Amino acid sequence: VQDKGASLDALEALFRTVGGWIDYYKPSSMYHAVFEEAFTFSKLQLALHYDISPFMGGNVLELAYLQGALDAHLDYTKAHGWKAIEISETYVQLPEPLKLQLIERYAADGLEVFYEWGEKKPTQPLDPDVAAADIERYLSAGVSVAILEQGEIDLLVGPDGQAHHADRLKALFERVGPE
After folding, report:
1. H or E segment to which residue 170 belongs
2. Structural contact between residues 57 and 120, judged by C-beta atoms closer than 8 angstroms
3. pTM (2 decimals)?
4. DSSP assignment, residue 162?
């Protein structure tokens, strides 16, 4: 579940109703810029109460990278109860050696590591061979959940699922498996 601004009461109602089917809770990255920490921490504690793993979104990691604050970001994530962390490159490209180092470090520190492959607003359709090779490399390094950026899917399938490159999404699934 990605929270894009629910109240604490609304989130609790959701968790109480369908929490047994929710594995992960991701507050939108806007929380880190707009809301007080106590509000976010209340939501994290609520997720943990319902045995739902909160995970820190990748956009926050990208900002930490730009600010030279990756160590502080990891310390913050672990100190406040996040169970998973996402590595993404939706706005900022990370050097490949650094990505692999972060995946291995976060996994070794006991965090579940997500990797979001792709760009928010791609201009060219993905190459299934390149995407599959990247995803397999990151899974081998310790990623437990690989996510395909929505912008990549939208470009491939179009609004009606019939875009010219829809076959590339199928080819990617055949290479890495939809699971």
Report:
1. helix 166-176
2. no
3. 0.88
4. -
Beta-sheet pairing, 145-148 with 2-3:
unpaired
* Relative orientation angle of helices 58-66 and 70-79, to the nearest 10 degrees: 140
CA atoms within a 13 Å half-sphere pointing along the CA-CB vector of 62: 15
pLDDT interval class at 127 (50, 70, 90): very high
d(CA 105, CA 176): 24
Residue pLDDT, tens place only, 44-59: 999 999 999 999 989 8
DSSP code per residue over 132-154: HHHHHHHHHHT-SEEEE-HHHHH
Other C-beta atoms closer than 10 Å to the C-beta of 52 total 20
Strands 84-88 and 53-56, bridge-based pairing: parallel
